Amino acid sequence: MDIAQAKRKENIAEYILYLWQLEDMFRALQFSPEAIYSQLVAPREVDEEQKHLFLLWYMDIVNLLRKEGKEQNGHLEHTLHLIADMHNLHLQLMQLPIGEKYRRQFALLEPHLPRLRAMLQKSDISDTELSFRALYATILYRIKGDEQRAQAIGDVQELVSPVIALLADMYGKVERGEVDLFDDK
Questions:
Q1: What is the 8-class DSSP label of residue 181?
Q2: What pLDDT score was predicted for residue 100?
Q3: Which of 9, 132, 135, 146 lies in disulfide reach of 141, CB 3.0 to 4.6 Å?
Q4: What pLDDT, on the 0 to 100 scale, is given for residue 146?
Q5: Cα–Cα distance measured from residue 170 to residue 74, given in angstroms and rounded to the nearest whole number
Q6: Rounded CA gap, 154 and 134, in Å?
Q7: In this predicted structure, what is the pLDDT of residue 97?
Q8: How far apart are CA 64 and CA 51, in angstroms?
Q9: Rounded CA separation 71/87 (Å)
């Protein structure tokens, strides 16, 4: 909750990846409130009231996963909507003058997207979602010890990370009102 709130304010990309990690942790813990408490809440050095709030927040996510039928796999609609918002920003940055730096960075990644789609077997998603899935896949492959797959995607990750970082930075600035996409200055 505290980590998620901080990540949401500071970096939307980190927030999305953090929530995806939580989804998988909850699945690994079989959505058990007792296991979630013992593994994720009890080790925290906060008072009992705070621990209770953490558990409630985690269980809210569990309930959303169940409600959306994503007990086995998939990601919450909330994060997919955020990625769709980021993709809309991506499309604007590809056209507007303010996106010049972003376009240069994306141009380095773009030739690698077909190979990335093939590796991840994702032909029906946006470039932005594909980039997020590549970042997350690298994390998962490393956790699972599948260094060959991690390296294969990791090679492209060096191009994905800067694109997502720029996009997340711009997303935050637009959201906070620090940047006007349509300002000619």
A1: T
A2: 96
A3: 146
A4: 75
A5: 27
A6: 8
A7: 95
A8: 20
A9: 26
How many residues does this entry show for the chain?
185
3-state secondary structure 89-147: HHHHHCCCHHHHHHHHHHHHHHHHHHHHHHHHCCCCCCHHHHHHHHHHHHHHHHHHCCH
Q: From the first residue on, what is the mean pLDDT of each consecutive set of 10 residues in the chain (185 residues)?
A: 76 95 96 96 92 94 97 96 98 97 97 90 93 90 75 78 97 95 76
| pTM, 2 dp | 0.90
Q: Residue 126: what are its φ and ψ, rounded to 5°? A: -70, 160
- Between CA 57 and CA 33 the distance in angstroms is 11
Residues 6+ apart with CB under 8 A from 90: 102, 106, 126, 127, 128, 167
Element (H, E) at 86: helix 77-93
Q: Do 143 and 183 meet the contact criterion of CB atoms below 8 Å apart?
A: no
Six-digit token pair at 82? 């955020």
Structure tokens at 185: 């200055």
